[in-house]
Amino acid sequence: MRALVLNSFAGPSAVTVTEVGDPMVADGEVLVRVDAAAVGPWDPQTTLGYFAAAGGMATFPQILGWDLSGTVVEIGPGVAEWSLGDPVMGYSAQPWTGVGVFAEEVSMSTGLLTPRPVDLDINVAATLPVVALTADLALREAGLTEGATLLVLGAAGAVGSLVTQLAVQAGIRVVGSGSARDLARIEALGAQAAFDRSADVAARTLATTGPADAIIDLVGAAARPSAMGALRPGGRFITTIRGPLPEGLTDPPRKIDVQPNPDRLGQLARLVAAGTLRVATGAVLALDDAQQAYQLATSAGAAKTVLKP
Hints:
Number of domains: 2
Shape: globular
CATH topology of the largest domain: Quinone Oxidoreductase, Chain A, domain 1
Structural class: alpha/beta
């Protein structure tokens, strides 16, 4: 079968489409025909060894890709909950297994998959698993209740836009930071205010809503200096970004990574299908156009590019 393969940590230029062996289906797995697979901002990082430095695979070749929507075409031993032809969506933690979803087919543990709602577009479904589960986990880690204030750093991105919407729907007041071109979009997602991250985000947040009960950081160190002063004493700081964490906080800062949660992914997918959550989608490209897709992944914001194997 054809797959997108990484041959070194030299960046996206080290990625090629090539023929690889057909996947074998092990106990507790199903074989999924990949109908659509999404390229996220973490995919270019994979090609530079970002995850290998954190304990991921450092050998080659690796089949790339995390997010997919597809169709079950073979059932492995010990699997009773799936049938041939079932539409599914989910993600593969490729940097730790070397087996990703940018391929015609992939074998996946049933614990990473959830049924794809029949009224959810295949391409949209492919963009959801990692970002939706990460956004949901970040908000749960924030531990906020109705009426609390949340500052989201990177509120216009793929994860941030979902954090913002989920928080607003939970009755949380959201302040978002982003680039100047993103501010109108952040407010359209329901944020009470949106500030340019290059300005004094902390001062503007304090003047608008008062101290933030939590900060969810989806950008990293570059966005923190202008924002950390908005966090109330004892407030919670959550980030998805690897690297040094803020010091001097009463509540220890928390670094989170996406975790499998098929039931919750299914719930979030149904909210998207119903229009309750809005998701931006970008270009739809062939697998052979992966180089272009990787370039778009570094600048597309909330709109993830979709590859068709």
